[in-house]
TrEMBL record:
Contains an N-terminal zinc-binding domain, a central core domain that contains the primase activity, and a C-terminal DnaB-binding domain. Monomer. Interacts with DnaB. Its EC number is 2.7.7.101. InterPro entries: DNA_primase_core_N_sf (IPR037068), DNA_primase_Znf_CHC2 (IPR036977), DnaG_bac (IPR030846), DNAG_N (IPR013264), DnaG_primase (IPR050219), TOPRIM_DnaG_bac (IPR034151), TOPRIM_dom (IPR006171), Znf_CHC2 (IPR002694). SMART domains: TOPRIM, ZnF_CHCC. Binds 1 zinc ion per monomer. It comes from the Bacteria. This is DNA primase. Residues 367-449 form the Toprim domain. It catalyses: ssDNA + n NTP = ssDNA/pppN(pN)n-1 hybrid + (n-1) diphosphate. Keywords: DNA replication, DNA-binding, DNA-directed RNA polymerase, Metal-binding, Nucleotidyltransferase, Primosome, Transcription, Transferase, Zinc, Zinc-finger. Its cofactor is Zn(2+). It comes from Psychrobacter glacincola.
Amino acid sequence: MSIPNHILEQLNSQADLVSIIGRHTTLKRAGSEFKGCCPFHGEKSPSFYVNPQKNIYHCFGCSVGGNAISFLRDYENLTFIEAVNELSKQTGIEVPKEEQQNVSYQRSKKTPTVKPAAAVTQAPNKPLNPEQVSADVPSGHMVLDYNDSNYKDSNYKDSNSYENPPPLDAYGYDSVPYMTDDEGSEYQADNNYPPAWLASGMAGLHDSDINHSFDNDNNNNDDNNEDGNLYELLEKIQQFYQHNLSTHPHAKHYFLSRGISDEIFDTFGLGYAPFGWQHLEHQFPQDIEGLKALGLVRRSESGRDYDLLRDRVIFPIRDNQGRTIGFGGRALDDEVKPKYINSSDSPVFHKQHVLYGYYESRQKRANDWLVVEGYMDVIALYQVGIYGAIASMGTAINESQISRLLTLNPTLTLSFDGDSAGQKAAWRTLEVALPVLSDDKEMRFLTLPNNHDPDTFIKSQGADAMREQIVNAMPLSQYIFAYLSERHDLSLVEGKAKLMSQVRALTTALPKGSSFRYLLNNDIYQKLGGKRSQNIEAKDALLDFDGEMTISQQLQLCFVFQPRALIDDPIEAIWQQAGIHELHLPAHLKQKASADVLRPLAWEDLQDEALLDVVSTIKRCLNYLPKDANAAAHFILSNVKPLTQETLSRDWGSFYKALTSRNILSLDGLVEELVSQLIERHMKKKTQDLIKNPDNIKLAIVRKQAQLLNNWLRAQQAEQSAQMATVKS
């Protein structure tokens, strides 16, 4: 099977080479490249480098090198076709199964050059007389009347355009100079082909390149029908559009009014497609087949050819090698719909695999990547020195593109408009990105204030303010919660449940083994008031604060931080929840048991003077405590015994800071857990004492109490595990 070179180039340039090679050796970032030990030969010192910008690899030890296809073929032992098919799956670039279409097309013979409708000296904003046109235009040349009610184009209508174009005065041409066909001869075909503007535009190329591009055109042999090349044709069209910008002041004024500098005109090759139905055919009469292959010339239902882009400023679209592969056209009048039109997919242009501004950003060695919505956003950021802004071609950015950008930099920022459409686009991009967000990758979201986009924000606030906005972009976890919070009523349990359900569904798309899945679920669960999550955070804070503290000391500080935990006595609550207060004993044991052994456990029984001091003081002062937690703590500390006060005061400040820094508002779960541990420890000690000093009645009762407590603790642990499993999923 013959596969065109341009397909192979696209596969190699779009492949995630770092990930492909990373499956076989550990790669670490080294500046703009990645390095590691060569997978082709054994070595201890890394000499194998991968360049993600050029998507090539090279080993300075064994001299092996190549691209994605060669690596799959040489290391993974795939055939050439298998390697191509594998990359096709990874990148989404389709490799046709049948005879491949390539970038060549058949050029037509030269025909006598005429200026269509040249004798019609009629202002462009007045309807043409069909009889006059037919009389003045030679056979074989067609001029379309834009007021022809019979003209309809299904393709153009499908792209949300207008069936019949509006009159020229709708564009304000009465107030701007616009050339008639006689005056606008710079885009008419003539005998001096290539035209002067195009020849001068090729001055920077080697002579051989120029000769190759124009040898057919400069040859006087009319039978010369050598194939044309779509890339070369696109380059000529780009220069044609760019030349038109200098001869149509109203078009250039559009860019100037948007703050575009002369340098940017050249960097991005900006241009203008003149008003007229067939200016490309007039300019490139031998390349009609190529123009149609590129989708720049289309055919209406009535069988008439017409140019796709008319009276629009032009944004050339380039591939990773800097070659022009398509065009975006913007209407000069905001009332014209659609505002933007992109050229069709073609053998060299596939919208879903191209990012506008990527080539220009790479030329500036961009490191930080920012996904924006429009061409002008890319250009505005580039002009003020913020490189790395890219935009998709009217379609959502896809997984392979996101993966590639995250390979270049592990942090990717998305900047979408704050309106409903912009936020929906941001959310769709988030969903697309989740499968490639491994734990070492990060996605951030930037919504500019006052409904600004990057272009308008820079004009209003300046470049430094824009840089600050990018630095402070919202992390993914915050964005998800903020986005979903606006769509669910969190004052209701049902609203919280729906939000948590959406979060769990989202996180299932994260890579297998992702720690971020658990952490994100847990973070949002905490924001919704999840008790277990607060308990984990509090335990982590205690460990960070002082991992050597005893359970009693931790519990004392918890009570000082949250004295309301003693409103309902925790020991009594656990005693009842475990069912110990309703202990069912055999009749002979109940008759012989003393009242002391059957009574509920009390704080005094734990034989911990400091803990008893804190509990007693708080219960005594509960009705007098200030509402502020820190003030209440100092009130409690001033009323405990001096020794207890000295111990607690030493740790209180750091403990309070450790909890508040984590935004911990509730210690209910932690208090319950700590009290349970103290009760369990007390029961074990009591059992051991009764074994040493036998009292069979008391021992049987204590063992029964301990069994009920253990059953309750296991049930609590199982419930907590189930909750966390739900959060993790």
